[in-house]
Amino acid sequence: MLELNKIEESLDIPKAIEYIADNQNKNIINYLRVLFVITYFLKEEPYNEKEYLLYTDYLKKIFLESSKKYSDNAEFLFYTGFIISMGEWYFNLTFEQSVEMMTKASEIEPKNELYQSVYFFYLDKKNKKKEYAKHLLGKKTIQKELYSKGLLGRYIYIVLLNMLHRKDYSFILNRLFHFAEKGRIKNDTITLMLDNSIEEIYKKKTIPKELLEGWEPDW
User: pTM of the entire structure?
Assistant: First the structure.
């Protein structure tokens, strides 16, 4: 798991592909995390045409391989549907298909409040999006569930914050949730110790209260 954390931190796509190729690492959580990190890289980072063709090819192969194993698994359907919705063209799928996957997850597990979010964020209850985002952010069980999904879970948490506050907090994704070796939260300052350097990065007043209280640091 520590190896995958480092891959997510560095967005090292060749390493991610190598990691999931190992049969010992082929489980549902690892599939989801690798699918996300490749999709996130393609969506947010610069790359050349050769890398694009290579990474999208592997992305589709990993998706097809994992789908054969988990096509009826609600956890797989929800998170993969979300990932695909970020860039359905990378998978040669449609946005509607990604929503169908999340909807199927909600039908398989109707009591899962996170999976039910598909109706509030994509379907007929979108007028209550902000209220439902607030509800999810206030649930410790949801926070724990997302935290178990590595960078994918952190990204979804940021999306929920964006919906609640109508402000873009994505800039903190790779900093506040950085896999630091050491660090501390004291008074109103978060301090991370990275690569032999010490950096005080944020004040509480600049970040929603629940963002600091909802997550435990990795150290």
Answer: 0.78
